[in-house]
């Protein structure tokens, strides 16, 4: 193959960067001047849920070299000027234990020490050298560390031993693979993208290509050579030639559960990769799987797909354009939008003559004709049942030993049971038939019979699963049943559409089912406002012979709803009261609900009495649209009375089955609207803060994600902060940030949480809240606020230099306040006083407005600072401007002392101002200011 012409060169080597997730990059340094675009070395950082990326860009940074030795990663940068890595030191990303810089000959080396169990990969892209850091795996993590070796290239070594060529693919972590022969080549496909660094004998003609999330290698081989694959740790070993062991571990079965499909059971399947064979030009799929080795020994072909023998994994060929190959856990499903073209499931079964007394198959797979329930003949029902049951048992016993045994007797028995309304028994017979002969899932009559039996006993979701089978697609008798199921679940518009699709076959059903379908269709017409259609359908129901009492009562219930639609409440009430006396809860409960609604509308029933009756009715009948209507009515009644806790409790206690019904979304909407009224529109403002908090926490899962949810939490947190319930406010904000939000919204709430922690003298928790919500592309105002909070927390921990490093050159008001407090704590009196003075600005001109608590603190500290720094000029100016504000101030004595000036040699000593500094508590002023900002943000008092 090495001498093949150019047209046979295959899979030209490509370099593809496979990213594990989307990473948004932002300059690492806090100020633009520290990481200027176009600088010799620019360090940028970004993160997602899987890893953190550090980029080295710029004229010099882009030529950086990366090497790794165990947990140590060394980045060599060709400049003696060490880059600024202070941010990585202050807040190292996950997976990084520490970072150091060291001088090297003509260069600087950054030494990164990884945390135990962490990993790293590197490469170059877009004019920068990048380094990805992977945090140590935690229990339950689904993320796998990148198996691509440092540098991005996988060493591939090949050697020839006798008649065999052995290739070793040395990945640095577990990868899924597929190895198989196709035509004159062996393919090795892996589920990660990487460069293949191939060397050694036996590689002539081998080519590789990488896609976004895979790498494929094609190796030309001689005809007849065997291929084998095995894993040695994270290294895949592919052997070509010699004798290969027989592969096993991949089993292909037919699956007719929804549509005709083929399912391959293959443990550890990871990815489906579609490839184009460069020699033939057709597409085929390779399904990779993790070790240990597993393959398909013998190929298999159908009209739509062909399975190749494999040494490991799975390979699927197809002549179609719409074949779907899906890997999900240990299952690989192969199908087409309308199912595969496969032979009939009953093609291999023997045929048996049906008994003379056995019910014959209906003309439609889901039809129930009247003759199935006919018991003419000697012995009646009991004798006929016994005969059919005995025949079915004999046939089932034979099927246990012979998979080709017929199915006629079991189907006849199932028809008999369905025709007599014995749905539970029919489901049992049909389940046993499918268990013995799984291919029966693809038989239309089996699915139709079981769906009808399930629907008749109220198992609507299971029935819908049968009716959705590909075997019943387009069948009108199935549409009738689906319309009936939709009506029982309150999906009225869909019920009408489905009944209309099956209208041509309704008369083929037994009379009792014609009555039930007609009543359900009539109710759907009433609920969609079509009174004329409802009248015609009720007339059809009442014309059916021998309609049972329950079916007649159901029709009368529909008639009462029709009277309501015709605005005849008295007639409707009379019918409801008559039906409500029936000893059948499924019919009496909706009738009783109708009575309660009409009597409340007349004013004959007070709200408290109606609520008591509805509470009792709520437990009388459960699981369908009737319970949904009762709960919504009761919830609306409580809301109209202002009984919010009872309303939320009622709406919340609806079972999960109810919420999934058609119309269940309206129940959730009722819950959401009630919760919004309480915590967004001010309905809960009349409650005590602790009571409001208790109500919020009892129903906190209703908090909407996004701006409205943030506003709810801020409003409630503000009320708690106002009464100094800081622990409760922190708990509220923490739950919201950790369980409800992501991205910018999480960062905003975490910023508020950090402020609350700081007010509560918990700087460590404040830092955790800020660092755990760090993300890129935050609004500029939020970044300034977070930076100031982070610096204040570090200041409270005594880490003054780190705090100043975080502030950088930030000149925002909040940053200047923190910087002044830091300088004050460092006893840099003059610098601190100048900042306090700057923050006062031209406030001295507004003599008619008294100073606020924060402004008094700034004035006192400015004066004391100038005195301690012996800056007489500045103190004189300050005293001249602000002496008049002492009258009417909160602390007039402290202001006068601070502005008194340098009085002799001893008055300027630090101890003379100890009491003064203690009185001017900047932290208390900051807390008061932060509370005021919370009130302003939530619109308190408006």
Q: Could you explain the architecture of this structure?
A:
The protein has 942 residues and is an alpha+beta fold. Helix content is 43%, strand content 17%. The strands form 6 sheets. It has a 5-stranded antiparallel beta sheet with strand order 1-2-3-9-8. Strands 14-10-11-18-17 form a 5-stranded mixed beta sheet, with no helix packed on it. Helix 10 runs parallel beside helix 12, helix 22 packs antiparallel against helix 23 and helix 29 packs antiparallel against helix 33. The radius of gyration is 39 Å and the shape is flat. The protein starts with 25 loop residues before the first strand and ends in a 5-residue tail after the last helix. The model is unreliable at 1-37 and 904-908 (pLDDT under 50).
Summed up, the helix count is: 33
Helix content: 40-55%
Q: What amount of the residues lies in strands? A: 15-25%
Mean pLDDT: 83
What Rg is obtained from the alpha carbons, in whole angstroms? 39 Å
Shape: flat
Oligomer: single chain
CA(first)-CA(last) distance:
83 Å
Low-confidence stretches: 1-37, 904-908
Q: Total strand count, please? A: 28
Largest sheet: 5 strands, antiparallel
Overall SS class: alpha+beta
Give the strand line-up of the largest sheet.
1-2-3-9-8
